[in-house]
C-alpha cells in the first residue's frame, strides 16, 4: 500500500517535482564541480607553484648558508663545509622520491672576472643545468638541474652545455643580467676567471635574468667550477623542489622537532608530504646533511593553496544552501497544495511518521535522480573550468559519483525540514473543514 501511494504521489504535481529536480541538479553540480577540481587540481596548483623555485635546501650538517652581499661572497669568514657530490642522488632516493620534482647541486666559490678592460669580484656558481640522472632500477633517465627547477628564468642566448668527457673546449657559462650590464658582456664573449687557486677561461653562452642574487653571478657547469676551485667532488648545497601539502598549525609548530610528537602524531606526520617531513626523510637518507625549509616559499605555497581551497569550499556551500532554499520552497508549496490529501490520510488512521516517511521517500527518489544528473553536470563543469584556468581537464574520479549523490540527499533533506514540520502541524479536522 505504501509503494502504491508513493507511486501515485510521484505521478502528480509534475511541475513542482521538476522544480525540485532542477534545484537538486544545480546544487549538486555547484558542489561537486569544486570538489572534482580540488581532488585533482590541488597537486597541479602545487606543481605550478614549484616553478618559482626550491622550497628545500640541503646543506652540510653544522654548516652555514653562503653569505652574498652585492654579488660578493663573504662565506670565507667562516670555516667552509661541503657535501659529498657522489651522494647527491640521496635527495631523490628516499621515501618521498615521487614528491621530489627537481633538484640542483651547487658549489659557490669567490672569483675575479675580467673581460676586456673591466674586472670585478663575483661569485662563481657551479651547478647542474639540465642533466640526466637515474636511480637504481629505473628504466630510463630523468632530467634535473636549474633549468627544470626554475622554468621561468629568462636566458638570452642558450643554457650552458653540460661538459662532455675529455672535451678540450672552454666551459660555457651564464652571466647574470646586472653583472653583464656592468661589465658590458654579451653572449659569445670569453671571460677570464681567476679563483684563489686557478685561472681559466669561460665562454659566455647566455645572459640570465632570474630576479634574484643570480643576476650578479657567473654560473657554469659544476665540474668546471670544482676544477677551478680545486674542490673536486664537493658541493656547497643542493636546492630541492618538492611537492608538499600545507602544514597544519600543530605540525608547523612541532614538525621541526619530530621528537616532540607522540608516536601516533609522528606516524601521521611522517606519512604526510609536509615540507618538514620530506626534509626529515632527506636527512635520514643522507647522513651528514641537513635539510632546511625555505619558509618564505613554503608559507607562500600554503597560503595560496589554502585560499584557493577556501574559495572552492565557499562556492560549494553557497550552491548547496541556494539549492536547499529552492527545494524547501518548492516542497512547501507542494505540501500546501496536498494538505487535503494529508488530512484525509491522517483521518483514516495514518500516523504522522507514516505520512512524513511517505514524503521523505518521495524526496529521496528525486534526490537520487538529481544526484546522478548533478554529478554528470558537475563533472562537465569541472572539466570546463579546469581547461579554461589550467589548460587541461581534470581527471574525474569514480568516488565523486557517490559523493555527489550524498550531496544531493543532503540538499533534499535540508530542504525538507520546513515541509516536514508543516506536515506534523496539520490537524485533519481543520484541514477537511477548510476543504
Explain the overall architecture:
The chain has 435 residues and is of the alpha+beta class. It has two domains: 2-46 and 302-434, no CATH class; 55-293, no CATH class. The chain is built from 14 helices and 16 strands. The protein has helices spanning 2-11, 14-50, 146-149, 177-183, 222-228, 249-254, 263-270, 275-285, 295-337, 339-347, 352-390, 400-415, 417-425, 428-434; strands at residues 56-60, 68-69, 72-73, 83-84, 100-115, 118-127, 131-133, 142-144, 154-157, 172-176, 190-195, 198-209, 218-221, 234-235, 237-242, 289-293. The strands form four sheets. Strands 5-6-13-10-12-11 form a six-stranded mixed β-barrel. A hairpin with an 8-residue loop joins strand 7 (131-133) and strand 8. Helix 9 packs across helix 12 (400-415), helix 9 (295-337) packs parallel to helix 13 (417-425) and helix 10 crosses helix 14 (428-434). The protein starts with a helix and ends with a helix. The model has no long low-confidence stretch (mean pLDDT 76).
Number of helical regions = 14
Characterize the largest beta sheet: strand count, sense, and whether it forms a barrel: 6 strands, mixed, barrel
How do the strands of the widest beta sheet line up side by side? 5-6-13-10-12-11
Helix content: 40-55%
Overall radius of gyration? 33 Å
Question: SS-based structural class?
Answer: alpha+beta
User: So what's the overall shape?
Assistant: elongated
Distance from N terminus to C terminus (CA atoms, Å) equals 25 Å
Q: Which residues form runs of ≥5 with pLDDT under 50? A: none
Summed up, the domain count is 2
**Number of DSSP-assigned strands:** 16
What is the mean pLDDT? 76
The succession of helices and strands, N to C, reads HHEEEEEEEEHEEHEEEHEEHHHEHHHHHH
Strand content: 15-25%
